[in-house]
Amino acid sequence: MTDPIAFAQQSFNNMTSYQVMMRSSSPLGESKIIRYSYQKPGYVRMDFTQPHSGAVLIFNPVSGKVTLWPFGVGTLPILHLSPSNSLIQDERGHRVDRSDIGVLLGNIRHLQREGATTTVGKENLAGRATTHLFVIGPGTMAVDGVHRYDVWLDNYHGLPAKVISYASDGQRLETVLLNAMVINIRFPANYFTP
Question: Does the predicted TM-score (pTM) go above 0.85?
Answer without folding.
Answer: yes
